[in-house]
Queue: 4 jobs
Job 1
Amino acid sequence: ETVNLLETDEDAAETGRARKRWFSVDEYQDTNPLQERLLELWLGDRDDLCVVGDEDQTIYTFTGATSEYLTGFTARYPSAREITLSRNYRSSPEILALANRLLASEGRRKRLVATMPAGPIPAIRRFADGEAELAALVASIRELTSGGTDRGTAPGTAAGAAPISASEVAILVRINAQIPPIEAALTKARIPFRVRGQRFFERPEVREALRLLKRLPDSATGPMLAHLLEERLRLDMGYI
């Protein structure tokens, strides 16, 4: 609707352009055609624009996003100054070495430079299905927290290494839909965890708990209420 308004109502378009002198767009590699068109309408005939992005981090292609707007930026804006940021302040040299090998295998000249201290060598594992992956995930965490010989994804680490706290283990996912199966597996294995990045009352298990809570007897209060809810949740989620 906004794009349609700006395309059909010049007064509205001019009002919007008058309010902003220049634009800065982060994560530009995840821009889709509709967003790009809106940016063009906001700009008008100006070129006061700065974009930041990495063509190798495009993750929203399912919404129509493409890195072509980023890689073709200087072609559309010939006067733009391009600044390459190759120093990485997040990952260990071992992780960046793997990334650089992958880029080189595709004939890319891009090369990331490490600034962090050395860390474990990353390992890539394949599993037959999701259940096998979850089982391996649980096993790796148990190895790490018990000081086992595997040390999770750190091949070559000496046997009998000191155990680490579960709070030092992180599981990264791309989308929230990947979280519930992992939570279920960790709960069943009695491994403590905390989820970040998702609102508490939007989580499926919280909504389910609220639904079950309404179905419990009105007479249940205090410890009895907590006990009945826990029992109902465990039965419904298949943990006992």
Job 2
Amino acid sequence: MKSIGVFALAIFVLLVHGASAQNRRSDHPAGFRMYVSTDQGHTWKADWAPIEGLSTRGAVDPAALLMPNGDLLLYYLGSNQTQGDPARSQPDNTWRMIVARSTDGGRNFKEVGVSYSETRGMTDPFPLPTGDGTVRLYISRGAEVFSVTSPDGIVFKKEAGLRSNRKGGVPGALRTRDGTIYLFVCRREGIMRLKSRDGLSFSDDGAALKAGPGKFLCDPSPLANPDGGYVMAYKEKDAKVHDPRHDTVRLADSLDGRTWTARPGTIGTGSVPGLVIAAEGVWRIYTTGPPPMAKRPR
């Protein structure tokens, strides 16, 4: 496939990552749609993960991190834009990456506060421990990715330079057991791989998952599987349908973190899936989308 221009790639990334689906409306509480599995991702049950004390009018782009003490931190874009794409505009010209904490294995969250803010559009945070006790958060800005770091996973400071310079956005990151760091980004071809040893300087490393005819793939959320190998949640989207409510969540597996094989079938609908395997072995995927019918207030 011929490469597309930088501007076209940026617009493609904005269209496909699905940030326009606001996760707070008058007809349902603040939080994220959640899929739960107790059999290593083979069967799933739809549920809802509420966020107590959400400080913005909406929340999108969830990504979870299991902390050493068993708590879960959930990062998301807190948006006060109620119509259109929150990546493009905010009422006060401020974009906020927010963190919430769960102390019950990821069932319920309480907002901690703003982790990082800018007066430029940004979306899709993805956390990765650096190995020295700090947390690096990769963040998308169109077809680029930059990063911020924190000693505690709560308050972050921006790092110099870009991790993906016009090579794709909407990042997911993985540190393999041999120390290689892969940054997965979205492009028209599918979910692409960038490779690094330090988590800062990346080089192209080909396609991780190629999109099928008439499909877009995006929103990679890779993770080491405690039972061996690696697993990635991601979104599949019909190229002709822009409504993120019709996005589907899928899984892929890898033995080495580099070569991936998609599992058959889908988990459910939702956009920007964030996968985490909690301490007790329960798999959870948080997505942008409304609660299942059984969880909606009457």
Job 3
Amino acid sequence: MLKGRHIDIMGIINLTDDSFYAESRCVDQEAVLERAGQMIAEGATILDFGASSSRPGSEPVGPDEEWRRLEPALSAVRDRWPEVEISIDTTWSSVVSRAYDLIGEIWVNDISSGQDDPQMLPLVGKLGLKYIAMHKRGDARTMQSMTDYDDVVEDVIGFFKEFAVKAQECGVRNWILDPGFGFAKTVSQNYIMMRDLRRFRLPYPSVGIPKILVGVSRKSMIYKALDITPEESLPQTQVLHLKALQEGADILRVHDVAEAKRTVEVYWRLC
């Protein structure tokens, strides 16, 4: 166990009507403020706003529609809770630029690690923002993804070694590693990554040993493996959260903040 490190809980707020877990959907201002307030009260240190679902079968939206959904939510939350860290789950540099102009410093949570928009990494480097780089292959929405790894952990590490060079060239100095649970991995490959999560804790160019974000909350690696629904997956999510913390995770991206917070407290008692 890695003692003494800071652990963040990132609460998920989806400004969509088609995210895979219905409870996370906030389609009006009242719902956004209610969910944000509850998450902050329960211990979230970061709020992650997503305005386009990446679940299989979902329809992508362009940057203008993303921004239409994001702008009022970001303004309202920043006005009411100016101290809370805000993250934007987007692959569009134009959305990041608009959000920065509106509310200032943000985190950027990019499931494409800059692959979908060549302007993303240069913009993040220019603005000096925290950046979450996630591993995936193919298109998550159309389920056209490749899962043929020789060694899934080594292959994903290789991806981040290449990403680190690009990040360094673009001036991105503060990036967080997200292995991409559920993206272009089979159920068994997801569990291999979780079991060996500590292998990702190695030095990369410019950033050194990056923080690791784990996003497994109510995902298919749980409900498909156990033949249950996302709604029934909370207990097993906490099992995986505890394992992730034991293996060195620094940030848990979650739907259920109170439960994750209690899991972190139990983890510290085990250290």
Job 4
Amino acid sequence: MPLVSTKEMFDVAYREGFAVGAFNMSSLDAVQAITDVAAEEDSPVILQACPVARRYYTMPYVMHLIAAALETHDIVVALNLDHGIDIDNIRDCVDTGYTSVMFDGSALPLEENIRITREIVEYAHPRGVAVEAELGRVGGEEAGLDVSLKEASFTDPAEAAEFVERSGCDSLAVAIGTAHGAYKFAGEPRLDFDRLLEIKKRVDGVPLVLHGASSVAREDVDLCNRFGADLPGAQGVPEEMITRASKMGICKVNINTDLTLAFTAYIRRHFSERPRDLEPRDFCAEGREAMREIVRRKIRVLGSAGKAALVRDRLA
């Protein structure tokens, strides 16, 4: 099956009360781990690359890796640009095979965010590409993003209703307390579910997106620290909160830190136990297996296992 739009995925996810995992690609190993497990679990998935990752890989390599995965498996996959800011870069993604693009105008005044999002929608929609936008600012630091707690702001439900109506976006990333990176909470983890319900009511069926939603597993943090990392106090979003959000209009959940944390933890252990090992196939294989288990766990937390068949039916 070729790459699909997130629109069909989200139509099914919203109706059935689950969310689709949007996993950031960090390497060949990540692409393989995500797509292999998607096939085993018969789950729709979204592969993501942020602008920093696109520059690192270069697009021909990314597209051929994904094509190989689609030739290997009968899977339901969308390709999304994560946190696009430059309009020319976003247009290039639309023109080179992405099925979804995100414009992150969260740092802009409301009117400018609406205007640019609308401009991107008018370019992307005739080419069959869905557009994700963001309103409110998710804090934290990750993949070139750095938003301080002072700069972070929750999504206003009334503004969300105006935004989706005027911009024409297909999905909306909202800020309800999550954060990018491994340090999401200084104290007790807390998400504003009342705000989420109000946003859902106001935007009337528009799929919502949760950024900064990795759970930062304690065992992976401990493993990293045991073998030389320095991650004191790293803390993520409890998985039961993610499951709850996925039944309240959240149709897409972004996951990056959990993948990179697991990959790094097992490679650190490998080098500590086998300091003379020089073969990338050996240590990357351990990291890839760790990412596979993260993807499998998240698919089950989000409730998307077995749901690829429903998306195929929607596309038929």
